[in-house]
Amino acid sequence: MKAKFLFPVYTIGPSIPYFQLDQTSSASHNNNLPDYFKWLDSQPKESVLYVSFGSFLSVSSAQLDEIVAGLKNSGTRYLWVARGDTSKIVQEYGNWGDFGIVVPWCDQLRVLCHASVGGFWTHCGWNSTLEAVFGGVPILTFPIIWDQVSNSKLIVEDWKIGYKVKKGIGVDNLVTRDETAELVKRFMDPKNKEGKLMRERVKELQEVCHETIVKGGSSDTNLYAFIRDISQGHDKFFGQGSLN
Fold this sequence. Notes:
The chain is an alpha/beta fold. It has 10 helices and 6 strands, in the order H-E-H-E-H-E-H-E-H-E-H-E-H-H-H-H. The chain has helices at 35-41, 61-74, 86-93, 108-112, 126-135, 147-158, 177-188, 193-213, 218-231, 235-238; strands spanning 48-52, 77-81, 100-103, 117-122, 139-141, 162-164.
C-alpha cells in the first residue's frame, strides 16, 4: 500500500491500550475495584463466558428469554453486561447464584484479559473483536447489522477463532434455548478438540497483536512516526508549497 500512494501510510493498528495485566487482575488485592473482578478471581481458569451485546440494536425480548434459559441450562459460568436490560434480567430471572452475575457496565478489555474468562459472546463490533483477540479469547458471534456481519465471517471462517450462533441475519431470526445451551456447552468445553484448536489459533493472533503494540513494534513505530511528521510539518504531508 505504501508503494502505491504518493502520500504516507501509517499502519498504527490495533488501536487499543497496551496493559501489562496480572493473570488474575489483582482485583482481590484492591478493594477499590468492582465486585465483578473479585468474582472473576474466584472462578476456575477459562471457565467464564463473558456476554455483551453492546448498547445499540440488541436482542428482542423473545430472543432474550431464549438466551437466558439457554445459558442457565448450559451450566456455564458467565459475566453478562446487560446495560439497560440489567434490572429486567435480574427481576424476571432472579439471582443465578455462583454461576453468573449481571452488571450494567464493566471494564471490557480488562475482563477479556482475565485468566478466568474463556469465551466472549458478542454482536462483533470491531472494537470488541480487537479486544477479544488482544485478550486471547475465542468468540461466539451474534451479528445483527452492518460490519458485525463481515466481522463475524472474519472470526468464524477466516481466523477460525469462534462459532456463529445465528444462522441468519437480523433480529427476527430466533435462536432457541436448546440450541443456545448445546452450543455454549460445546464452545466452553475444555475437552472439545475443535475448541482446543480454536484457542490455539486465538493465542497465536494474540501474540501477533501484542508484538505490534510493544515498544519497537509496528504499531508503536508507525504511531511515533505519524506524530513526529505531523508535529514537524513534514514536506511529504504538505508538499513544497504553502498551506495558504
